[in-house]
Amino acid sequence: MNNVTSLFSSLWQDYITRLSPSAGKVHQLLSNGDELINDHIALRTFNLPKVGLQTLAAPFLAIGYKACETYDFEAKKLKAQHFEHPDPNAPLVFISEILVEELSLETQNIIHALVEQVPAHYFATSDFLSAGRPWALSFEEYQILAKESEYASWLAAHGYGANHFTVYVNQLEAFAEVVDVNQHLRDAGFAMNEVGGEVKGSPEVYLEQSSTMADKVKVSFTEGEFDIPGGFYEFAKRYSLPNGKIYTGFVAASADKIFESTDS
């Protein structure tokens, strides 16, 4: 098993166990028994020195990934960057970070206190990427964060892990269009993210995306267990650029709406 396969295998196991238990069923519904190609994963973090975007990028850079485009999400107070591997079959990686300094003082204080609980050496190996939450959190704190930023509350509650995996629609034999995938999943009882339309993007921007709404999962807080939104499954269809190459970037306007798949 090579380094890329090994890292994504750990991320997948954590994702289907802890964050998106329904992902296995979605996988089954779309795969026809074949292996699905994962277009990309997304990871979330805070933009603080110890845990910032570059900390999450380091394990990927160490196995050959290269930093590509950056993205700004001003309304959500996020910055993001995507990473690509020289092997075109390796999944893309999308890492975002919330700009803590732009949040209210109360929210900033909670986030700083969480991050202070984590020793710097915690991030020395890639294991942390699928290890969940490295800090203690109360449900009361989670609720305070959620009032201001769904992203911040999700990250505080779940810690590190793949927010979503993404089926590469181009490879599917049974479905040519994202809208067909959506209907198949809806027929099977899955709720789809309708924010900004059920399909985000278009052939004109070389990318179409859709996603399920996040599973509700049980998470432990200092007061006990509560059900909150976990991970979701995304679907992406990519189009060829004028030069004939498949587009490998992301569309900020579409990603902005995909973030809302974890809204409660």
Automatic annotation (TrEMBL):
CDD domains from the UniProt entry: VOC_like
Keywords: Dioxygenase, Iron, Oxidoreductase
Keyword Iron: yes
Cofactor: Fe(2+)
Coiled-coil region: none
InterPro entries: HGLS (IPR009770)
EC number of the protein: 1.13.11.93
GO terms for MF: dioxygenase activity
Classification via SMART domains: DUF1338
Family assignment from sequence similarity: Belongs to the 2-oxoadipate dioxygenase/decarboxylase family.
Protein name: 2-oxoadipate dioxygenase/decarboxylase
The species this protein was found in: Aliivibrio finisterrensis
Species lineage: Bacteria, Pseudomonadati, Pseudomonadota, Gammaproteobacteria, Vibrionales
